[in-house]
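Supplementary Data S3. Sequence and structure tokens for construct A.
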Amino acid sequence: MKQRGLGKGLNALLSDEALNVGGDNHVGVQMVNINDIETNFDQPRKKFNQEELQELSLSIRQHGILQPLIVRKKDNKYEIVAGERRYRAARMAELNEIPIIVKEFDDKQTLEIALIENIQRQDLNAMELACAYNLLMERFDLNQDEVADRVGKSRPSVTNILRLMNLTPYAQEKLRENLISFGHARAILSIKDIKVQKQLVDYIIGKKLSVRETEKYVQGLLNEKEGKKEKKEAYNPFYREIQENLQKSLGTKVTISMGAKKGKIEIEYYSDDELERIISLMHVNK
């Protein structure tokens, strides 16, 4: 299988001495006062597991920091490019000095490396990932294809994650706190009303609904809004099965409705890139 941009991109940005600092030859490593280190405001990962930090802190007390932090010079300080988790644990361990490797990175490279590091460790939840992708697109004028290539993900995967940016801030925060899952969030996206969406989020958390239960509940809300006739048609087992199969194949919401003499299929998309992706999946020549 061809390697995508994730590993390739990181190796291109970090030279060998920065990647293989666990060996005997620590080229370019220097010890600096921990108070001279600053965190990166654009760090994609916003929440750190305190129990895991405590475990790492105990290890650092016994063995020290085995892998230096990657930093860049910023004014009279050093800004973390990769290794904030080690930095936080070192502070918990009350270290005075920590090992670093100084690299010359611009803002784009710094953000990319921070994002890639967290993706490789699978530390980011879906909402943090969506914000990171969105930041790459907005700050550096990248499209979804370019983001996908940089982080080593498929474009449909990036598209689905970016849809989370359409959630209300309240729903985004609950997803960031892992009180709801990515599956829950995808169902919630069908509800456009801000007030109803908040009530739905609270209902999911309070009732501890599964993703499947949430999907059924959301479908009921939508059917109630669309009217009794559409509600009855939406629950037709034949149409429901086809509808679900289409949604799985296209990776987006599909609605099938049947009138007295004719029916219709509605396929939702949320960007030009997503429309192109759907057209490609349907093998339609543009």
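Construct B, processed identically:
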Amino acid sequence: MRKEISLSHPDTPIQQALDLLAELDLPDETRQQLTTYLTSASDELAAAHEEKAKFVSVVTHELRIPMTSIQGYTDLMRQEAVGPVTDQQKEFLGVIRNNVERMSALVGDLSDISKLEAGRLVIDPAPLPLYGYVEEVLKDLRPQMEAKGQVLEVDVPEDLPRVVADPQRLQQIIANLLRNAHLYSSEDKPIQVKALEQNGFVRLEVMDQGVGIGEEDQQHIFQQFFRSDDAAVREEPGWGLGLRVAKLLTEAFDGHIGFESQLGAGSTFWVELPIDK
């Protein structure tokens, strides 16, 4: 069943203020003025989100067109479709391709967050096999992980119950968690991926032995654009959007997301998605 999702929630600050206002002993005229003011502020905020969503939609569309061309022509050149290419030229073309992919991911994340804020992101939940989607994501990421000397240890049973999620967004959640582990794990260190059934959910865990997260940063880890000041984190490319998007999408499917981490000892990020009944 297709539905639109947004960040709007009954417990937003303006709604909380309206609920509190209803409980206060105030003159009717004062209560009416305050209610009108808060309602107007809520409407203006919604309109601002809508305008921002329209702007981001136009910008991301205009960015995707040249990025698609750059990716396509870069691939043709690497395949020597227009003539011989030296090893060094292939290496340079690979750098171009990788950076265009980074920009493409950024554009996609910004677009998704903007649509969520405006209540315009459409999802189509359906019963899905987690195993197949994990394998699909790993197929794309394995070459990057192997190039860094990282060893994948995967324990995702094929016979797990199906989860309720949107196909594209489920793949996006898994990819964001795995990319996070890949980026912040040391070379030659294992990355473990496992899944199990637990209390009406299927729980997917991604464990690494990377830089870990300091206590002062842990409360901010799912915030938009947040990146730690830790030098080891700053050395890696990133925008501070992947985990935020993963959290919003997981919660859109009535799931849960969280992590355990220790600075210098690695992290475990997990998501729990509801089982199809």
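The mean pLDDT is 82. The helical segments are 13-23, 28-78, 87-118, 130-147, 167-184, 215-218, 231-234, 242-252.
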